[in-house]
Amino acid sequence: MKLSFTNWEDPGVDIVRLNLLREFAERGSITAVARETHQTVSGVSQQLRRLEIEAGLPLTEKVGRGLVLTDAGHALAETARQMAVAMAHAEAEWDAYRNVPTGAVTLATFPTGGQMFLPGLLARVDAVGGLSLQCSDRDPPADGFAPLTADFDIVLAHGMQLPKSSAFNIVVPIMVEPLDIALASSHRLADRDYLEPEDLVGERWIGNPWGYPFESWLNNISPTPEAQINVVQRFADTHIIEALVAAGTGIAGLPRYTAASSYPGRIILKQLRGAENHRNIFILMRRDRAERLAVQRVVELIREEARTITDG
């Protein structure tokens, strides 16, 4: 399919409408596109219908009560994505020529990631000059980080497995953080140098909601299939988990670098041997956003901060 883009001589295919199609491909609904682009649902629908006329092919079709892309729609959305990457690359080349990574960068982070990285990272950004970093906290299930790249330049995510880069998103490994067993200081295992899965049989656990990264880890540390993990409470917020561990309500698996800081002397962390006991911390970025020199500079600063944390 040969496309001509808007200019004074030939109306062609409008690049603004192409970007709406790309947003629809990534977000999956007209409503989500309208919300992101601050338009009405009917306005976005009209723009996409106009794009179909310009392209000369149907780009969407009804499936049940929803709207999906046709093969031609997917192809054109991919073209739009490649154009966005190319334009971002051109801007990055100009920034590199000036050697000035300037501008605002948006970042979403999971809560313990923010606790771990943001104090040092923001200081590093301020020292660079010309950059501003706008941060927000998000705590989605494991499969909820990738969609955040549509709204943020950088998404700091975590999971038990390190994902692979895709056609839409780039994955940048940042850190492997050990997970320890958190016990109340009065717990029967508090004097052990380390723990093994067999030591934990019969314990009451404070776990995470289904679908969260640590939940899959918890299910894999049982020494035998018959030894069921007894989860008595589930919370996404690690501060609540820490409070219950400190009170002796149960034990938990917590990340080593941020756990128990609010309860000195009341929570003890023990290394768990004989099981996979770490999480991967990584960055997700949409490919066009990753081309920006300012974004690349912030990624470098995150990696520097990670080295400081692990060396410490």
Tell me what you see in this structure:
The protein has 312 residues and is of the alpha/beta class. It has 9 helices and 11 strands. The chain has helices at 15-27, 30-37, 41-55, 71-98, 111-128, 213-219, 238-246, 287-290, 293-311, and strands at 60-63, 66-69, 103-109, 131-137, 154-159, 169-184, 204-207, 230-234, 252-255, 267-270, 278-286.
List the keywords.
single chain; alpha/beta; Arc Repressor Mutant, subunit A; two-stranded antiparallel sheet; globular
Strand fraction: 15-25%
Gyration radius from CA atoms, angstroms: 24 Å
CATH architecture of the largest domain: 3-Layer(aba) Sandwich
Task: Spell the H/E element sequence.
Answer: HHHEEHEHEEEEHEHEEEHH
Amount of helix: 25-40%
What's the shape? globular
- CATH-assigned fold name of the largest domain: D-Maltodextrin-Binding Protein, domain 2
Sheet with most strands: 7 strands, mixed
CATH class of the largest domain: Alpha Beta
Mean pLDDT: 85
Through-space gap between termini:
56 Å
- Return the structural class: alpha/beta
Count structural domains: 2
